[in-house]
Amino acid sequence: MAIGWTGTISPVLINEARVGFVRTRYGYTPPGNNIDICTMLGIVNCNAPLLGGISLNGGYNNQIEYTGDYGTYLIPQTGLNYNDSLTWIKGKHTWKFGGNVIRRQLNLFRPLAGKGYFANAGDGKNPCCGAAPGQGHTSTSYEVSDLLAGFVDGYAHGTTFGMVGTRTWENGFFVQDDYRMTPRLTLNVGLRYDVLTWPVEVQNRQANFDITTGALVVAGSNGASRSLISNDYHNFGPRLGFAYQVTKDGKTIVRGGYGLFYFLDRGGISNQLAQNPPFSGTNGVSYTQGARITLSGSLPCSNTVAGCTMAQLISTNATGPLPSGNFTKLNLAAPTGVSVIAVLPTNLTPMVSQWNLQVQHQLGTNSSVSLAYVGTHGARLTRNYDSNQQLYGAASGTKLFANLGSITTQDNSGKSDYHSLQAQYERRLTNGLNLTGAFTWSKTIDDACGDLDTCAPQFYKNFAIERGLSNQDQPYRLVLSSLYELPFGRGKRWGHDISRALNYAVGGWQLNGIYVLQAGLPFSVTVDGNPGSTRADLVGMPVVQPGNLLHYVTAAAFAVPASTGGVFNAPGTSGRDILRGPGSSNMDLALFKNFAFTEQVKAQFRVQAYNSTNTPHFANPDSDLNHGTFGQINSVQPNSWRQVELGLRVTF
After folding, report:
1. CA angle 128-272-408, nearest 5°?
2. What are the extents of the domains in the chain?
3. What letter does residue 305 receive in the DSSP assignment?
4. CB atoms within 10 A of CB 497
5. Would you call 277 exposed, middle or buried from its count of C-beta atoms within 10 A (0-12, 13-18, 19+)?
6. DSSP 517-586
7. CA separation for the pair 18, 7 (Å, rounded)
8. Helix (H, G, I), strand (E, B), or coil: what is residue 143?
9. Measured between alpha carbons, how far is 524 from 535 in angstroms, rounded to an integer?
10. Residues 6+ apart with CB under 8 A from 461
C-alpha cells in the first residue's frame, strides 16, 4: 500500500513525496508437518509443537537421498517506507535533492535441526555433515544398513526458542545535478549517502561468536551493543556521467559514467545472529567423540569415560536420551558441543564500483547500433566459510576450537572484477516487425561468492588461492529476439477490408521468438577426504572434450593430494573454476492471437514453447576425482527440457 503526492511549488520547483508499507510472509511448512511421523516410527527427540513430520536423515547423498527436514520456518516481514525528492530547475541546471527511509521489521522462526539431524558418511570417505560434527565413521559403509543396524557419524539437535523479531534501517540521501553545458553536452554529477544498519532484536535475543576469545557475546549484555556489530557510517557514493552528441544531427552519441554503490549481503535465515546459542543453534556430537546414536536413541555407554565395548555395540539397545538443543546450562564464555555463527566485528558494507563508455549510432529512421565497455569492481564482498574446519597437515580433529562444531563465519573482505564488451542492434517496431540483437563478451573474476552460495574455500586463511573465475562467469552470450505481427486482417497489408467476423479467424496473429547462445559455467575438480572442501592436485594439462558425455574431462591431469592419517597435508594445487562446462543453445517461440471485441473488451490467446526444439542443455560433469563417474555428464540443467504453456488473457 502506498500514497503519493506531487506538488508544484513554483514553475521551477516541484516536490514528490511517497509513503507506504508492504507486508509479506515467506516461509515453508514441510509436507506431513501435521503428522508426528517420528513418533509413529519410534524416532526420538523429534516431534514437538509446530514440528511434525520426520527428522533430517542422510548426509552423503549418494547412496540414499536426504529424507526429512529441519522443520517449519516462517519469515513474516513488514517494510515501512518514506521517500521525498525536490526538483529545482535553474538555468542550465536541474537539481534534485531527496532521500528514502526504510524501517524493516523482519521476524523469523527457524529451528536449526529442530527435529534432529542423523548424519551418515556414506562410504566413509567424507566426514559429514554441516551442523552434525561427524568425522567420517561408517558401520557398514552403506547408509541404508548404517541407519537400520549401525550408528550414525554425527547427530545434531536445535532448540525451538520461538519467533524472534529483528529491526533495521535502510536509509539513503542524495543530491544530483544535470548540467546542460552546451546543446550537445550534458553532465550528470551526484552524491548519495547510505545508512544500512545491522539488525537489532526486540528483546536482544541474538548473540555473536567472538573468534578471538571463543566466547558467545549476547546483545545488550556486558557492554555489548544491541546490534553486536558497529554500523558503517561512511557509505558515500559519488556519481558522474556525461552524454555528448558527436554529430549535429544527433545520430551519434557518446555516453559514459561512474558510480559507487552500497548493498546488503547478510545471507539467509540460517545465517542470522538470532540463530546463535543460547537462543537457537545446534548441539552436536559425533561417533569419534564417543556418541553411539541411532534413530531410537543412544547406547547407555555412549559418551562415557570407559566408552563402549564391541559387545555393547547393539543398535537395538540404543534407547537412551539424545543430546538436546537446550542451552540453558551452556557456558557462554567457553561454549562446547555447539555450532555457532560469527560475524566479524570489522565488517563494513559491501560495495561495487561501476563504470561504462558507450557509442550509439542511429541507422536510418528506425534502427540503431551501440558498442559499450562495461566494468565493475566489487570490494568488501561477503565470504562465508567455516573457520573451525579441519586443519591441513594436522591430526584428525585438529581445529581452532576442538570442542565446537562448525563456526559459520561472515567475512566482508572479498573482491571481484568484471570487464565486458557489449554490442547491440535494435530495430524499432516498423511494419509489424521488431528485432533486437545483443552480444556480450566478458570475464568475471572473484575470490568469494556471497553469503548464500556454497563455494567454501580450501583454507579460510588463504583466499589468494581462491581467486579465479567467478561461478557465474560466461565469456560470451548472444541474445536475438523478434516480434512479428503477421500482415493479415483488418488494417493490415492483406485482408485489410475483410469482415469483422472473418477477422476473428484471420487477423490479430503475432509470432515472437527469443534465441540464446551462451557459454557454460566454470567448475573446480574436487576430491573426497578431510578437509572436505579440498581440490585436486594439478599434475598436467587438463583436457576438455566438448560433446563427449562419457569423458568430458579426463582424469590424467589431476591427482588426489597426499594425506597423513586421513587428513590432507596441504590444499590441492588446482585452481578454483579452472574448467568450463558445456554451453547451451536455446530457442523459445510464442504464438499470440489477439481479439478486439469492442474498444474496451479485448482478449489474447497464447501458446508459448520454451526450448521449442527440446535441445538438451547439459549440466556440468561429475567433478569429484574420487568418483567412478568423474568427467561424465549425467544430467541436464533443471527445468531445461521443452515446456509448452497455454494462456488466455482478457482485459476490459
Report:
1. 35
2. 170-262+337-471, 474-488+501-652
3. S
4. 7
5. buried
6. EE---EE--B-SSSSTTPBPEE-S---B-TT-SS-SB-GGGEEPPPEETTEESS--SSPTT-EE---EEE
7. 12
8. helix
9. 7
10. none
Q: How many residues does the chain have?
A: 652
Percent of the chain with pLDDT over 70: 97
Backbone angles phi, psi at 503, to 5 degrees: -65, -30
Cα(616)–Cα(608) distance, integer angstroms: 18
CB-based contact 60:126 (threshold 8 Å): yes
Nearest-5° Cα angle at 626, 624 to 630: 55
The DSSP bridge partners found for residue 651 are 602
Residue found under cell 557398514: 140
Question: CA 204, 209, 214, 219: dihedral to nearest 10 degrees?
Answer: -20
The answer to whether the beta carbons of residues 449 and 480 sit under 8 Å apart is no
- Dist CA 130 CA 386 (whole Å): 9
What amino acid occupies position 496? H
Low-confidence ranges of the chain (pLDDT < 50): none
Please provide the distance, in angstroms rounded to a whole number, between the alpha carbons at the two ends of the chain: 24
Query: 129 Cβ partners below 8 Å, 6+ apart?
Result: 59, 60, 119, 121, 153, 154
Q: Given its phi and psi angles, is residue 389 left (phi above 0), alpha (psi -120 to 50 degrees) or beta?
A: beta
The residue behind cell 564417543 is 290
Could you read off the pLDDT of 131-166 as tens digits, one per residue? 677 667 777 878 778 777 888 888 888 877 778 999
- CA dist 441 and 645 (Å) reads 32
Alpha-helical (H) ranges within 223-311 are none
Q: How far apart are CA 227 and CA 198, in angstroms?
A: 6
CA distance 392 to 208: 27
Q: How far apart are CA 208 and CA 407, in angstroms?
A: 11
The enclosing H or E element of 41 equals: helix 37-41
CB 520 within 8 A of CB 540: no
One-letter amino acid at 275 equals Q
pTM comes to 0.87
For strand 117-119 and strand 56-58, is the pairing parallel, antiparallel, or unpaired?
Answer: parallel
Grid coordinates standing for 182?
A: 552546451
pLDDT in tens, 472-486: 999 999 999 999 999
How many Cα neighbours within 13 Å face the side chain of 455?
25
Q: Do strands 338-343 and 407-430 pair parallel, antiparallel, or not at all (unpaired)?
A: parallel
